[in-house]
Amino acid sequence: MTDITDNIIKQRKRILSPSLSLSYNEPLHIIRGRRQYLYDADGNEFLDATNNIQHVGHCHPKVIEAALRQLKKLNTNTRYLDKTILDYASLLIQKMPNKLNKVFFTNSGSESNDLALRLARNYLQSNETIVLDGAYHGHLISLIEVSPYKYNGPGGIKPPKNVHALPIPDPFRGKYRGKDSGEKYAEEMDIILKKIKTPPTFLSESIMGCGGQLIPPEGFMKKAYDLIKTNDGLCIADEVQIGFGRMGDAFWGFESQSVVPDIVSLGKSIGNGHPLSVVITTKEIADRFNNGMEYFNSYGGNPVSCATGKAVLEIIEEEELQKNAREVGLRLLKMLQELERKHEQIGDVRGKGLFLGVEIMEGSDYSQPSKEIATTIVNKMKDSGILVSTDGPDHNVIKIKPPMIFNFQNACQLAETLDSILLKI
Ligand code: PMP
């Protein structure tokens, strides 16, 4: 560790809140980013396989140019007429199912989910909320309350009575196992629905991120959505981690599970790192929200954010990034599945497109989740120049969610490095 790095760590400790964490045993001092690479203060290059926020690549020139051009011209808010917001909102709507055609702008995934909950609760006049165990939806009070990942974790407190968690739909290690467990998990939804008296909001990710890069078993999402609809409830799709083509086979995570939500919240990758986020809903839900109380957000929908978001959408199309996610992701998934056959520490490999997870296990029969080995692997990967991270309720899932320009060569490098590290563990 250099003196500069050491000083920055000391200064952080002195000035910043101690609840902020740093990645890796020896924290990185990254000073520059370009495409799918990050560079530290000593000039070392790291292949970034974990930053899904920088969706089209770090410091994409077209994103910078779009933001800068608008920043030089004007930055105001939604109380003035402006074409930028309309151009961008129109492009977003085109990507959505027809019924989702009313757009709100916010500044973070948390803010989007908070607004999504407000919209749903206002429409239903009910605050009954159903979530998936292990899920994370944001850092606001309203979202910690609906994020089992947080309220069941260190420092968490019991959620309010209106929040109900379904067992995590994990076909590998969950309450019900195997490919055919979708129906069983959906039955758990029925149990909750019988207990509540007013219409529910179901807030979920179609593919879970912090829950451990988890694809629910076949049919679960569809059945869960159907049950909510027959109980006059609403479904919110949290696309903060998985949207914008990352799934490869679909532009949105909910599409890849063949469901259509009533409200969608977008964040992270939407602005390639710029603090932009969006909620999209139906005319009926937006109309009922329009009850005389103004929706105003100082920054949400400002022209600079909209110009940035528009550039991101255009790049996804121009550079065919969804196709890249599908092709590179599939190849990487196959390589990781090969490693799963070779290394007993790998319990499960899963995911879609460029959103993959490798679950690390230990014990005589490799039936125990191993946060320790997963953390060791992630640190060794970093020492070998590749950045990945861990997540899941037991923090034993290595998550791979690189910028969408990740290529075949990057995928091979990642798989080969993981292989050689596992051989030595
Ligand atoms: N939803 C999901 C699924 C997330 O993963 C996150 C952040 N990790 C959020 C919401 C919150 O987003 P933000 O950090 O931008 O508030």
Note down, in words, how this protein is organized:
- The structure is a single chain.
- The chain is α/β, with parallel strands linked by helices.
- It is 39% helix and 16% strand.
- The chain has 14 helices and 16 strands.
- The protein has helices at 3-15, 61-73, 83-94, 109-124, 141-144, 148-151, 182-195, 220-230, 253-256, 283-289, 303-318, 321-342, 371-383, 408-424; strands spanning 30-34, 37-40, 45-48, 102-106, 129-132, 163-166, 201-204, 234-238, 263-266, 277-281, 346-352, 355-362, 368-369, 386-387, 389-391, 397-400.
- It has a 7-stranded mixed β-sheet, with helices on both faces. Strands 11, 12, 13, 15 and 16 form a 5-stranded antiparallel β-sheet that branches. Strands 1-2-3-14 form a 4-stranded mixed β-sheet.
- Helix 12 packs parallel to helix 14.
- The longest helix has 22 residues, at 321-342.
- It is globular, with a radius of gyration of 21 Å.
- 50% of the residues are buried.
- The model has no long low-confidence stretch (mean pLDDT 98).
- The structure holds 4'-deoxy-4'-aminopyridoxal-5'-phosphate.
- 4'-deoxy-4'-aminopyridoxal-5'-phosphate binds at residues 108-110, 113, 136-139, 205, 209-210, 238, 240-241, 267-268.
List low-confidence stretches: none
**Strand percent estimate:** 15-25%
Name every ligand kind in the structure. 4'-deoxy-4'-aminopyridoxal-5'-phosphate
Helix share of residues?
25-40%
Radius of gyration: 21 Å
Distance between the termini: 24 Å
> Could you spell the SSE succession in H and E letters?
HEEEHHEHEHHEHEHEHEEHHHEEEHEEEH
